[in-house]
Amino acid sequence: MSRWAAEHCLPVSETVALCAPDDLASGEARRFDVSGRRIALVRIGDTFHAIDDECSHEDYSLSEGEVWVAECQIECPRHGSMFDLVTGDPCSLPATQPVAVYKVEVGDDSVAVVLP
């Protein structure tokens, strides 16, 4: 790719439907394996959040942890690290590194995640 093309190309993204909106209850998290990524989809009220489904402290599934609805956080079931569902930032130790967050698009029939 030429330097001009590299500087003027927009990043390619992929939108992948994960489930229907009613497939998740408020306060529920579910793991989806999409394009080589483990994604935790979390519903709080009518809002959906998508984050990497891997604790940054240790390779453990966040979707198996407890969702803290009022705090908009999810707790790693292994060591108790809490992660902000909006930013991916750790809110408690032992995790010190954030996890990736993804844009979510909600339609009448599907909830989709936008992958970079």
General description of the model:
It contains one helix and nine strands, in the order H-E-E-E-E-E-E-E-E-E. By secondary structure, it is mostly beta strands. The protein has one domain: Rieske [2Fe-2S] iron-sulphur domain (Rieske Iron-sulfur Protein). It has a six-stranded antiparallel sheet with strand order 1-9-8-4-3-2, with no helix packed on it. Strand 6 and strand 7 form a beta hairpin. The chain starts with a helix and ends with a strand. The mean pLDDT is 92.
Shape category: globular
Provide the CATH top-level class: Mainly Beta
CATH fourth-tier homologous superfamily: Rieske [2Fe-2S] iron-sulphur domain
Helix content: under 10%
CATH architecture annotation name: 3-layer Sandwich
> How many domains comprise the coordinates?
1
- Secondary structure class reads mainly beta
What's this model, at a glance?
The protein contains one helix and nine strands. It has 116 residues and is mainly beta.
Question: Which helices and strands, and how do they pair?
Answer:
Layout: H1 3-8, E1 14-19, E2 28-34, E3 37-44, E4 47-52, E5 67-68, E6 73-75, E7 82-84, E8 101-106, E9 111-115
Antiparallel strand pairs: 1-9, 2-3, 3-4, 4-8, 5-6, 6-7, 8-9
Please give a handful of descriptors for the protein shown.
single chain; 116 residues; mainly beta; Rieske Iron-sulfur Protein; globular
